From TrEMBL:
One of its GO terms (molecular function) is ATP binding. Its EC number is 2.7.11.22. This is cyclin-dependent kinase. It catalyses: L-seryl-[protein] + ATP = O-phospho-L-seryl-[protein] + ADP + H(+); L-threonyl-[protein] + ATP = O-phospho-L-threonyl-[protein] + ADP + H(+). SUPFAM superfamilies: Protein kinase-like (PK-like). Belongs to the protein kinase superfamily. CMGC Ser/Thr protein kinase family. CDC2/CDKX subfamily. Coiled coil: none annotated. The gene is LOC111291059.
């Protein structure tokens, strides 16, 4: 800190930090702004700006932010951090929104954001929700302000539960809670009974339901329990250590007994922080958290599907519009206790609410029920490609596939252009409506990536669609993982059959190698250094993919022109560096060669799946 400088942060300092980090809130206490003499308090504010999972902040973040804070305050000038950061323009500012949640027992009311309109009542409530905790950091004690456990899943992503009384009435948390219990009750409307119960049988449509279990596609990834969420919790060091042993992570306790984890999950965790940073808003920003309506606004019609992370229902709003409602599953109660909300769903809501593209499914709003279950209301799509191809008699024609591939590639290009990896592209995550529009859904595994690349978890992408670099244990990966999945999808659309149906990771690799030939250092620089490369695979030196997709066939094999085969080969290229990008794929000659891509309106329509 510059000598003689009065270390009281000015709003402009906070503004600078906000520009750098997106979410540094100066929370005034009753004496005005706190004194961030060495940046510690700003760090604390910043950390707690991330209501979602404050514990995901690692020590290196604290140190880095502290340094940046100090530099900014010292220089008195806007100075970007040294580290190169590239982020998507996703609006990751959910924690800035404070929302009164509507459910049967609560009244909807939007609140203004803390940063833009500080309000004494909200501040008092926030302050009363905080506890002070000491944590050793590099030998010093840093005072951290930590939020008490959230009262609702939504509280953890910015929805703060407020009773409907005027905010001035809240002096402390207890009182707030008390009032919460006595607050106004809305009379249940005609839909209440359908949503009030968790029972999915009550609508009597069980026989019509198509319940898809996650085991349908063999080798669906198991949710990485940590995903960077929990590794930074000092209290959970035992479980982390055992996880480290399981996952070959390097874990050490420093002299203060603080966990220092050096692994890809830690890196993933660091990047989680960037997930929440803001650069610029995307073209559309659904400000859904300004007021979560009640699920009782919708009439539940039937269950469409049950996946790993959610149950999807078909429902109708009061205007008669059909929508899809995805009820967020809390798989692990610890998620709720510790983080207030499943991270996968948080990512999904965040991304879908911020992105607007014809090939990305639209989220209209987020609603809650009277048990604080959270539902994403999405535009309704009549089909998913997995279900469709299971029931289709004949595969799609070449011009159909071209039309679908174009839409898929446009969606993937949009994601990649916006620094997002989907990481779970597969036919069941591609939806089709009766207007011939293909849309990508299920962003539970999606994440931002940056340059330079960081190591992330490899337990992503459903096994059949998983790129060889992931199967071989590469921790640094990028957009090419999605492009491999796109290649598998292209083959599946043409053949009406998944391309590589491995029964385990090793079998998946075997199936890939049997078809494409064994990779080598010659065609894939760096292959031999991958953790899985040393395993003993049977040797198959040739690329036999053409046998599966010949130029002509008398036995009903899916046919593919040389140009089409070239595109498929480029998508299924071993070396991720050489694998074709979405942009280049869209410009591939196959889309200009006859038969031309069919226009959406002329795609075949299919009977409804209800
Ligand atoms: N907007 C929608 N309209 C119609 N059906 C949908 C919609 N979104 C999802 N579905 C259906 O629900 C299924 C599961 O959705 P989704 O993949 O989002 O859930 P999930 O729990 O994340 O599933 P998974 O186990 O594949 O990860 C889809 O395959 C599709 O059949």
């Amino acid at each position: 800190m510059a000598a003689g400088r009065v270390d009281v942060p000015r709003r402009s300092d906070v503004g600078k930090l906000n520009r750098v980090y997106g979410h540094v809130h100066a929370i005034p206490d009753k004496n005005g702004y706190d004194n961030p003499s060495n940046g510690r308090n700003l760090v604390a504010w910043h950390k707690n700006g991330f209501n979602l999972a404050p514990r995901r902040w690692g020590l290196e973040d604290v140190v880095r932010v502290k340094n940046d804070v100090t530099r900014i305050l010292d220089d008195g000038a806007q100075q970007p951090p040294q580290k190169k950061r590239k982020f998507s323009p996703i609006v990751w500012d959910l924690e800035e929104k404070e929302v009164r949640i509507s459910s049967r027992n609560r009244v909807v009311s939007a609140a203004t954001t803390l940063s833009s309109h500080p309000s004494p009542c909200k501040l008092s409530n926030i302050v009363s929700n905080q506890a002070v905790k000491k944590q050793p950091v590099n030998g010093n004690l840093i005072e951290e302000v930590e939020h008490l456990p959230p009262k609702s899943p939504l509280a953890d992503f910015g929805c703060v539960l407020y009773p409907s009384q005027p905010c001035q009435q809240f002096q402390d948390n207890e009182q707030g809670q008390d009032l919460m219990g006595k607050e106004n009750c809305q009379a249940p409307n005609i839909f209440t009974s359908r949503w009030a119960s968790d029972s999915d049988d009550e609508d009597g449509s069980q026989s019509e339901e198509k319940i898809r279990s996650s085991s349908l596609e063999s080798g669906e990834f198991e949710r990485d329990e940590f995903e960077g969420d929990r590794v930074l919790s000092n209290q959970r060091s035992c479980s982390v250590l055992s996880a480290c042993q399981d996952e070959d992570m390097e874990c050490k306790l420093d002299s203060n007994g603080v966990m220092d984890i050096d692994d890809m999950r830690d890196e993933d965790a660091v990047m989680e922080q960037s997930d929440l940073d803001v650069e610029e808003p995307a073209g559309r920003s659904v400000n859904m958290l300004l007021g979560c309506r009640s699920v009782f606004e919708y009439e539940r019609l039937n269950k469409i599907s049950e996946g790993t992370y959610g149950i999807v229902y078909r429902a109708k709003d009061k205007m008669g519009e059909i929508v899809a409602l995805k009820k967020v599953k809390i798989l692990d109660r610890r998620d709720l206790e510790e983080y207030g909300f499943p991270l996968t769903s948080l990512r999904e809501i965040n991304i879908l609410a911020s992105f607007h593209h014809p090939s990305i499914v639209k989220v209209k709003e987020v609603v809650v029920d009277d048990h604080d279950n959270v539902y994403m209301v999405m535009e309704y799509m009549e089909h998913d490609f997995k279900g469709l191809m299971d029931s289709m008699k004949r595969p799609f024609s070449t011009s159909d596939v071209k039309c679908l591939m174009q839409q898929l590639l446009e969606g993937v290009k949009y994601l990649h252009d916006n620094w997002v990896l989907h990481r779970d592209l597969k036919t069941s995550n591609l939806l089709l409506n009766n207007q011939g529009e293909l849309k990508i859904c299920d962003f539970g595994m999606a994440r931002q990536y940056g340059s330079p690349l960081k190591p992330y978890t490899t337990k992503v992408v459903t096994q059949w669609y998983r790129a060889p670099e992931l199967l071989l244990g590469a921790k640094k990966y990028s957009t090419a993982v999605d492009m491999w999945s796109v290649g598998c999808i292209m083959a599946e659309l043409l053949a009406k059959e998944p391309l590589f149906k491995g029964t385990s990771e090793i079998d998946q690799l075997r199936k890939i190698f049997d078809t494409l030939g064994n990779p080598s250092e010659k065609i894939w620089a760096g292959f031999s250094e991958l953790p899985g490369a040393k395993a003993n695979y049977s040797k198959q030196p040739y690329n036999l993919l053409r046998r599966k997709f010949p130029a002509a066939s008398f036995i009903g094999s899916p046919v593919l022109s040389d140009t089409g085969f070239d595109l498929l080969n480029r998508l299924l290229t071993y070396d991720p560096e050489k694998r074709i990008t979405a942009d280049d794929a869209l410009n591939h000659d196959w889309f200009r060669e006859l038969p031309l891509p069919k226009s959406k309106e002329f795609l075949p329509t299919f009977p409804p799946k209800m």
